[in-house]
Amino acid sequence: QVQVVESGGGLVQPGGSLRLSCAVSGLTFSRSVLSWYRQSPGKERELVASIGYIEHPALATNYGDAVKGRFFISRDNSKNMVDLQMNFLQPEDTAVYYCKARHESSAYWGQGTPVTVSS
Questions:
Q1: Partners of 65 in beta bridges
Q2: Over the stretch 31-47, which tens digit does the pLDDT of each residue have?
Q3: Cα–Cα distance measured from residue 86 to residue 34, given in angstroms and rounded to the nearest whole number
Q4: How far is residue 91 from each of residues 16, 73, 115, 119, measured CA to CA in Å?
Q5: What is the reported pLDDT for 53?
Q6: Which residues have CB under 8 Å from 62's CB, separation 6+?
Q7: Whole-angstrom distance, CA of residue 97 vs CA of residue 110
Q8: Fewer CB within a 10 Å sphere, N or C end of the chain?
Q9: 36-87 per-position pLDDT tens digit
Q10: What is the pLDDT of residue 61?
């Protein structure tokens, strides 16, 4: 059984930082493409960042335009975890953040962790 569990969300002031973590179990983590998405009320879910694995041509990280230069995704294959470091947060970054693990043809989502950026 695959489990994807996010943590680290919360309330942060504009200009602040937050680090989200995602623990994945039940699949071959080292050969999975990992992504963070977010969804705000009334908006579609959007890609925040993704990271591939060594044999996958997309090992290089990929970021949504809205977060380039502020957010950074990283993975630790020894711990089966993927993190999202978020810097210079703005109110428009307020959303529920979801972790997705894709292995071969299957994708698995977590329940999401809320992030609120407000003074």
A1: none
A2: 899 999 999 989 999 99
A3: 16
A4: 11, 20, 10, 9
A5: 81
A6: 47, 49, 50, 51
A7: 9
A8: N
A9: 999 998 999 999 999 988 766 556 789 999 999 999 999 999 999 999 999 9
A10: 87
